[in-house]
Write a structure and sequence with these properties.
There is one protein chain. By secondary structure, this protein is an alpha/beta fold. The chain contains seven helices and twelve strands. The strands form two sheets. A seven-stranded mixed beta sheet has the order 1-2-3-4-5-6-7, with no helix packed on it. A five-stranded mixed beta sheet has the order 8-9-10-11-12, with helices on one face. α4 packs antiparallel against α5 and α5 packs across α7. The protein is globular and about 60 Å long. The protein starts with about 40 loop residues before the first strand and ends with a helix.
């Protein structure tokens, strides 16, 4: 399995795994006796990013594959995504402590995928408000235990202290968070990469955190709606911003090229799938052949393209 970005069948028991007793001291990082701060870069004044590596989540990389980070205001800090394990989150927390003693007031999750939310438990002792899309609690309830179980098979003890922590504050349209002299604008999007995508805009520096609405270098992963994602991209590209922190890949200041490249992949995928559906081709044929012309342009192409084609085929055959 890869990141297991899949819907599990049925609602089952809707439950959350609360971890109220967890603390930074209880987080484990394999054989490490001391948690080392994550390597973060200040991409704009008070805006810090830890860029993830292009890889699948493993015990060796501690799940540190997504872009995560934080924004520092005059009075408080907001964390934006927490990484692929409690250890990954704890390392981000240590990086925050190395730069400011201001309280962590908010932990914002851009969507449900484990590489973005598995680090939440590391911040429980700070008692922040956990914030997410209004559909995120349901997505966590449906997928959370499945994500933990499946990834534990691959990551082992590194996930021992990882728990699912849902948002207490949700966003159905827009929400303004004040860090003191600095405001973050959170926007809930319609179904695109997932059905619970949230973006975060720092007004002070003009920095937009897209979560996985934008991938740079790493192949996009379709877990919501192929056509919906293209519509959301159309709205995003009209935004006037100074820089963009994508869900994966380097921070970009001129994001038009990155947007165009992702749009080209999604449009090629959709075009090929529509052609195959019209010709009466099978889903397995589509999974093996759709968007193959895009392979040179993306890392992890073989890990995700067939899955994207399968998801897109299921959506487009009902157009």
């Amino acid at each position: 399995m890869v990141h297991l970005y899949i819907w599990v069948g049925g609602l089952g028991a809707l439950f959350f795994l609360f971890a109220g007793a967890a603390s930074a001291q209880q987080i484990t990082c394999g054989q490490d006796t001391k948690i080392q701060p994550a390597e973060v870069r200040e991409v704009a004044s008070g805006v810090f990013v830890r860029q993830g590596i292009h890889a699948l989540m493993t015990n060796g990389n501690q799940g540190a594959i997504a872009n995560i980070g934080f924004v520092v205001g005059q009075n408080a800090v907001a964390v934006i995504d927490t990484g692929g394990s409690a250890c990954d989150g704890a390392r981000l927390k240590a990086a925050i402590a190395a730069r400011t003693n201001l309280p962590i007031r908010y932990v914002i999750n851009t969507h449900v995928h484990p590489d973005h939310i598995f680090g939440n438990a590391a911040f429980l002792a700070d008692k922040p408000e956990f914030v997410g899309h209004h559909r995120l609690p349901r997505a966590m309830a449906m997928r959370g235990e499945h994500y933990l179980r499946a990834n534990r098979e691959r990551m082992g003890a590194i996930l021992k202290t990882t728990k699912i922590v849902p948002p207490g504050k949700t966003v159905s349209d827009r929400l303004l968070l004040d860090l003191g002299g600095r405001k973050l604008v959170l926007t809930a999007h319609k179904t695109a990469h997932t059905d619970n995508d949230l973006s975060v805009f720092d007004e002070t520096t003009g920095t937009l955190w897209t979560g996985d609405l934008l991938f740079i270098e790493h192949i996009p992963v379709v877990d919501g709606s192929l056509t919906g994602w293209l519509r959301v991209l159309g709205k995003l590209e009209r935004r006037q911003v100074e820089r963009v922190v994508p869900g994966h890949g380097p921070v970009v200041e001129n994001w038009s090229e990155g947007l165009a490249r992702q749009r080209r992949y999604l449009e090629r995928l959709a075009s090929d799938l529509r052609k195959y559906i019209k010709e009466g081709r099978t889903m397995s044929f589509a999974a093996a052949t759709a968007a193959q012309s895009e392979k040179p342009n993306w890392t992890l192409f073989d890990d995700y393209n067939s899955r994207n084609a399968t998801a897109g085929f299921a959506e487009l055959e009902w157009e």
